[in-house]
Structure prediction request, 350 residues.
Amino acid sequence: MVWDFEKFGDSVAVLDDAGNRITYKDLACLSDELGQLCGRALVFFFSENSIGSLAGYAAMVYAGMVPIMADAVMDHKMAARLLETYLPEYIWVPDRIRERFAQWKAVFHKYGFQLLRTGYSQQGQMYKELALLLTTSGSTGSPKLVRQSYENIISNTQSIVEYLGISALERPVTTLPMNYTYGLSIINTHLYTGAYILLTDKSMMQKEFWNFAKEQGATSFGGVPYHYEMLKKLRFFEMDLPDLRTMTQAGGKLSRGLHIEFAEYAQKSGKKFVVMYGQTEATARMAYLPADMALKKAGSIGIAVPGGRFELVGADGSVVTKEDTVGELVYYGANVTLGYAQCRKDLGGG
Prediction:
């Protein structure tokens, strides 16, 4: 089990920018409802940054269902191709695009989402450890998906919680889509600790985002290089954000100059700036640069996450031990995923 929702009971799990909120008890109840209705089933999941999306994802994984995470605005042809390739028993879809699937009957409705039962019959048992399916940056236009196990998610979640010091006192504000491995790992880690997630689909370029973040005391956010480029243009260093404690960055290499600027800002303001490196194939994150080394080692991917390790392997297959020697960087850890799937039958093996 990835999370323990009962442990946090009536504590708020998620608050959205419209004032809607759900508790950890609500997530546990939704898990029971979906689990009893569907059992272990494959679900094509149209995600967005909304309560119905986050609650559905958490409840399904908790209940042993296997979501295929896709963007709610995914290209129609690509969505159709994935549906035909993986033949999911169910679809979790926002009310606003439900009409696209009028041929299928709704069997459950909650938080602005509907669960549709497709006409696809059960395609055999899925591997018992398979928890989640995600697209990867290299699979655009392809039905290839990354297979993540429960152990992968738990391992990477625990590693991230440890090195970032995440606790129930955190209030992260969402900046990334749920179907993106980095955005999803932020949700995973904070649900694991019983934190209070601030959920919005507004972008950092919108005034509403910053009003929500400040009013609700956001303590952290994550971003890719583009976000940090925009923050510089928005004069982020002049903003009054007294509750903000941590900024994380992944999803590509940040320019050295911008890295140094944010690291200096963090140092002067008593905040943490943590740069990370990861891939969907390693669940989310493989390396991080500790905040206290952000200036001294600017440009470095840092060290392996707790429980993981790196080796530099030469062309002859041996481990490189000499300085200034070219090799292939190889990562080892319990968060390395089960590999790829190309079709439904690939979900049956480990």
The chain has a mean pLDDT of 95. The radius of gyration is 20 Å.
